[in-house]
Structures are given as structure tokens and as C-alpha cells.
Write a structure and sequence with these properties.
Strands 1-5-6-4-2-3 form a 6-stranded mixed sheet, covered by helices on one side. By secondary structure, it is α+β, with helices and mostly antiparallel strands. The protein starts with 15 loop residues before the first strand and ends with a helix. It is globular. It has helices at 21-27, 33-55, 103-123, 172-186, 194-216, 274-277, 283-296, 304-313, 323-338, 343-354; strands spanning 16-17, 76-80, 90-94, 135-139, 148-150, 155-157, 226-227, 242-243, 252-253, 257-258.
């Protein structure tokens, strides 16, 4: 049945990290015992959290009362986990409160606000669930924890080890990436496996990049199209976790290996790891969005972003959708919003054709 506002699909929270397991797996085999130990600890913590999310009863998230209008301002709360793993930790900053001395807290607060602002101003969406959902985050999670994640209810940021990874609040697109998993959770609810899982990851990269561009006032041509720029440590050879402009080129490092993302279906990776390669094959729809956005030019959230948002939230994208399904529906979305045969339709056609899904 097609989802409608009056009969929404049930949402099933998943555990989603910004640093993919294949990258941490490589670091865990490092000849440097300290690096290997930290990477292994992060992998073990991620596995524990993923399993707990899978087997626990979904408590759900309290949304704004149905009879109350959704607010046009965010409701943010930042907690300090104080290097423990029990969430959420100690509340350190609430909505409207002054900045604190801890720069990590302030970056998290600003990143939540930037995400809320892009979805509101760009797409008329009021928070993650479109009903004014409060935005909660915890910082300083664990000891040298090398990741950030959305656990279905809130954002969580590690500090990184200062060697391979830096503080996970330094990249606003990482914050936007993780929160967009929540948007997907409340809309298409894409299964986190195979091509639907790669689409889930790609949606987070797309809107994470748009949040950064919107915050910086960048056009599609000015944007770097990198996810996690500034996140890699001083000893890593690379620029970011992923590149939407040139998938497979974000890093090439002795400890972390080479970026394995393909840019087209010709290099699609068949694997049973990482839920069927969700962090790897997401490079293909990522690249399609980059092509569409740069072909259209201007502010990417105004046309290409609008088409992708309409496709994600329109109710026709099924949880098990594959790349071809999304390509077809995005072409229909381009026609519905901008007309048949227009530059928007042609740009989306070119994008999917270039990556092998014409």
C-alpha cells in the first residue's frame, strides 16, 4: 500500500555509523598495536550497539502532540557522555542557552541547528519527523571512540583517537548525514541491506552535503562534495571519508586502505560484508546526485535536492527499493515538480545514464 500522511509506514530505527566497518577492519589489522587496539574497540562497541538495536523493543520517539502545530524552530539538547557509554549522559546545553566552554558541545548544537534549518527552509520539513521532533545528541562518547552514529533516537559523537580520526563534530555534513538517517526512518524507511541500504546511506550523504553547502552559502560548483572533510587525522593520507564527485578517491592510506567506492554500475561491489556493501555501493547514487546537481548549477538544494527529497518522501519508494527504482521515481519526481522535458528532467536522465542506470 502506498504510504500517505494519514497512514504512515511504521518506522524501524536502525543503527547507522558514519565510519564504515570495512575501514575500521583495515585499521584493526595495523602493525601499530595501539592503532589496531583502538579500531578493534570501536568495532566491538559498534557490533554491540547494532545487536542491541536489533533485538531490543523499539521504544519509539515522542513526537509533538498531534493537535499542536509543529514549531519552526529546533528543540536541541546536548549531553556529555563523559567518556562513558551510557546514554544520554549529563545535560550541558539546551535550546536557546548560551555557548559553553566546550567547543565540541557547541559544534554539535550548531550542527543540529544547521540540519533543522536546511530541511525547514529547503523543503518545508519541521525536524526529522516533520512534527517538530526534539533533536538530542551526546558528545564525548566512550574512550577515543572512532565513530559517530544515529541509534534511532539520538545522535552520538565520539572524540576520535586524534591519530586516525579527529573529533566527530568537526564536520557538519557528518552531523547532517546521521540525522538524515532519521528522516529516512520516518519516510521511505529503506531497508539497511543491499541496494536499499546503499540508498539509505546515499540519502544521508546527499543531504549531509546539502546541509554543509547551505550553511556555507555554496553553489554546486563551489562545493567540495566531500563527506567528512577535516575528520581524518594528521597521519592519514586522504581528504575525507567519501567523495561524491569522484567516488573511490577520498583516501589511499597504508593503515586505512584505499577508498573502495565505485562511481558506476560497472564497478558495483558484490559482498556479504557491511550489510551487503551499504557504505561502498552508495558511491553510485552519490555520484548520480553530484552529476545532476552540477549539471543544473546554482544552489543544489533548490532543484536536484528538491527532486531527491520528493523521491524519498513521496510515498512510492518502497523499503526494499533498488537503484533502478530510485532512478525511475526521481525522473518522475523531476517531471512532477519541474515539468516534462525541462532542464531538470534532462539533468536527472543524464545523471542516471552516466552511472549505468539509464
Amino acid at each position: 500500500m502506498t504510504a500517505t500522511p494519514s497512514s504512515p509506514r511504521p518506522h524501524h530505527p536502525v543503527f547507522c555509523t558514519v565510519v564504515p566497518p570495512h575501514l575500521l577492519d583495515k585499521a584493526a589489522r595495523s602493525g601499530d598495536a595501539a592503532r589496531a587496539d583502538l579500531a578493534q574497540r570501536t568495532l566491538e562497541q559498534d557490533a554491540f550497539l547494532r545487536t542491541r538495536r536489533r533485538i531490543s523493543t523499539v521504544r519509539g520517539i515522542a513526537s509533538t502532540a498531534l493537535d499542536a502545530p509543529a514549531p519552526d524552530t529546533p528543540r536541541r539538547t546536548i549531553h556529555d557522555a563523559q567518556h562513558r557509554t551510557r546514554l544520554p549522559g549529563k545535560k550541558v546545553r539546551g535550546e536557546g542557552q548560551e555557548a559553553v566552554k566546550d567547543a565540541t558541545v557547541n559544534r554539535a548544537y550548531a550542527g543540529l541547528g544547521a540540519t533543522f534549518e536546511l530541511f525547514l527552509q529547503g523543503f518545508g520539513r519541521r525536524s526529522i519527523d516533520d512534527s517538530g521532533l526534539p533533536l538530542n545528541a551526546s558528545v564525548h562518547y566512550g574512550e577515543d571512540y572512532n565513530n559517530a552514529f544515529w541509534d534511532g533516537e539520538q545522535m552520538v559523537f565520539g572524540d576520535g583517537d586524534g591519530d586516525l580520526f579527529l573529533d566527530f563534530t568537526v564536520s557538519v555534513d557528518v552531523i547532517g548525514h546521521e540525522l538524515t538517517h532519521g528522516v529516512t526512518q520516518y519516510t521511505a524507511n529503506l531497508d539497511y541491506h543491499g541496494q536499499s541500504g546503499a540508498l539509505n546511506e546515499s540519502m544521508s550523504d546527499v543531504f549531509g552535503s546539502l546541509i554543509k553547502q547551505y550553511s556555507l552559502g555554496q553553489s554546486a560548483d563551489q562545493a567540495d562534495w566531500l563527506i567528512g572533510a577535516g575528520l581524518l587525522g594528521p597521519n592519514v593520507t586522504g581528504t575525507a571519508l567519501r567523495s561524491m564527485k569522484a567516488p573511490g578517491t577520498a583516501y589511499d592510506d597504508d593503515e586505512l586502505g584505499k577508498d573502495p567506492q565505485p562511481a558506476t554500475m560497472d564497478d558495483y561491489v558484490v559482498t556479504s560484508r557491511d550489510n551487503g556493501g551499504v557504505h561502498i555501493n552508495s558511491g553510485i547514487p552519490n555520484h548520480a546526485f553530484y552529476i545532476a546537481a552540477t549539471e543544473l548549477g546554482g544552489n543544489a538544494w533548490e532543484r536536484a535536492g528538491r527532486i531527491w527529497y520528493d523521491t524519498l518522501t513521496g510515498g512510492e519508494l518502497e523499503p526494499r527499493a533498488d537503484f533502478a527504482d530510485f532512478a525511475r521515481l526521481s525522473l518522475a519526481a523531476a517531471v512532477a515538480r519541474f515539468g516534462d522535458g525541462g532542464v531538470e528532467h534532462r539533468a536527472v536522465q543524464k545523471a542516471w545514464s552516466t552511472v549505468g542506470l539509464g
